[in-house]
């Protein structure tokens, strides 16, 4: 994910034919460059990985600073449309995600990643108000199995 940020110029346009040591300016990048950029940007927000659906897998930590929100609506996925909103309240030790998990072809697993701005590990989690133990504090991932429709996840720090 770090590499694709380097293809965006200060003016917001894409570099054409990017590779180490060569940046050709281009007023209108080819469809391949633009498509590659968009696919990688999508993958940081939502990504299919076989039977698993990743949510916020590579969201920059700065996006989860206090009072910041990330919202995705009607994202097309292999499993069906996905929507979610992540709200940060890290000053009070929590990050909350409200999701609409696809039900057309439900994923076997939903992997929700909260990249805490200070790399603080998750201490506990709740799913729909109930204690949830399927999380990995080292990888900052909460694993959800068997859910579709509206799901609310709260990670405590």
Question: Radius of gyration from the CA trace?
Answer: 17 Å
Strand content: 35-45%
Distance between the termini: 26 Å
In CATH, what is the homologous superfamily of the largest domain? Golgi alpha-mannosidase II
The succession of helices and strands, N to C, reads HEEHEEEEEEEEEEE
How many helices in DSSP terms? 2
Low-confidence stretches: none
What this model shows, in words?
The chain is mainly beta and 157 residues long. The protein has 2 helices and 13 strands, in the order αββαβββββββββββ. It has helices spanning 2-5, 31-45; strands at 16-19, 22-24, 46-49, 52-55, 69-75, 82-89, 94-101, 109-113, 124-127, 130-132, 135-136, 141-145, 149-156. It folds into 2 domains: 2-43, no CATH class; 50-156, Golgi alpha-mannosidase II (Immunoglobulin-like, Sandwich), CATH 2.60.40. The chain starts with a helix and ends with a strand. The radius of gyration is 17 Å and the shape is globular.
